[in-house]
Design a protein that fits this description.
Layout: E1 13-15, E2 20-23, E3 26-28, H1 31-38, H2 49-72, H3 80-92, E4 95-104, E5 110-118, E6 124-130, H4 137-154, E7 162-169, E8 179-182, H5 188-199, E9 210-211, E10 218-219, H6 221-254, E11 259-262, E12 265-268, H7 282-288, H8 290-296
Parallel strand pairs: 6-7
Antiparallel strand pairs: 1-2, 2-3, 4-5, 5-6, 7-8, 9-10, 11-12
Helix pairs in contact: 7-8
Length: 314
């Protein structure tokens, strides 16, 4: 326990069986409901109830194991998920301050933060444990941003101490490897606007399926958003790759290094020989020597592909 962090008790009562929150006899709503009503109406619409129930039971088990081991100091527990979580913290020089810490606005909402962690620099990180097959970064961003907003209401003396939001992703083995994922937060003004709208009973229009102008193809909005997110990430990664390669090449040229072996990473400069290289001008050959072109051309079959174009938001 880090005694220098005086974290207030919210006073909210949590009924684990009914999964309800209450403060001074008044029932408060959870954050999951806010997100479902305001932003992610169709998040689980096409998933069978039995699958959701099984996933929830598995996730609850993982949460409980981590909380129990942290509480008891059972750091040598053989549970693979717990050991993956401990390794993530050790690598980053982080320690666990609290598990399942309840926050609230004392008026409408309350929720439990899975983990409050202390960063290596002494600031705080709010983290959520996810065991889903895919990580919905947008959902986690809103969820953790709301947690930070409520955390600072309960702990006004710690405003500004939360400098990091993160997800401890512990999927089943077939879905990927455990990962500590930093999450970009939303502004307090955006969070307040969302909570105010929900408290006022505002119900946004359900997003309609997006219909193309050709052949009336319909795609669910969440699928379209996921494609846009993936394509955008690929473009950003390629741009970053190009930038890093240019910097590394310039550095190797500056120090006249031809090969650099860095364990898993091996860098090799391909230095031009100075000799000219030639390519065939097939258009010129076709125009001036059509018989030769016809005799030498070779058929190549191509597979059907999909071209994806991402437009800027208007």
């Amino acid at each position: 326990m880090h005694k220098h962090f005086n974290i207030n008790a919210s006073g909210v009562q949590f009924d684990e069986i009914a999964h309800t929150y209450s403060y001074e006899g008044r029932e408060l709503q959870g954050i999951t409901g806010v997100l479902s009503r305001q932003l992610f109406q169709d998040k689980y619409a096409n998933i069978p109830a039995a699958v959701l129930r099984h996933a929830a039971e598995y996730g609850t088990g993982v949460h409980s194991t981590i909380e129990l081991c942290d509480t008891l100091g059972d750091y040598d527990n053989a549970d693979a998920n717990y050991q993956a979580y401990r390794a993530m913290l050790k690598t980053r020089g982080m320690t666990t301050l609290r598990n399942e810490y309840i926050v609230t606005d004392y008026e409408h909402y309350a929720s439990g933060i899975d983990l409050i962690l202390v960063n290596a620099d002494g600031t705080l990180c709010l983290a959520d444990i996810k065991t889903t097959s895919k990580l919905d970064r947008d959902y986690v961003s809103w969820q953790l941003s709301i947690y930070r907003y409520l955390f600072e209401i309960v702990n006004p003396h710690l405003k500004g101490f939360v400098t990091r939001l993160a997800c401890v992703w512990l999927p089943k083995a077939q879905y990927g490897l455990p990962a500590f994922v930093d999450v970009e937060g939303r502004s307090d003004s955006d969070v307040k606007a969302l909570l105010d709208a929900d408290a006022a009973g505002h119900v946004p229009e359900r997003p309609k399926a997006i219909e193309s102008t050709e052949n009336a193809l319909q795609l669910p909005t969440d699928a379209v958003n996921e494609v846009v997110a993936i394509e955008s990430q690929i473009a950003e990664l390629k741009a970053r790759q190009t930038e890093l390669r240019s910097r590394l090449l310039a550095l190797m040229k500056e120090h006249d290094i031809k090969t650099c072996d860095l364990g898993r990473l091996r860098l090799t400069r391909t230095i031009p020989t100075g000799e000219a290289t030639y390519i065939l001008d097939s258009a010129k050959v076709q125009a001036e020597y059509p018989d030769v072109y016809e005799a030498c051309k070779k058929e190549r079959k191509t597979s059907e592909t999909l071209r994806v174009t991402i437009r800027d938001e208007k």
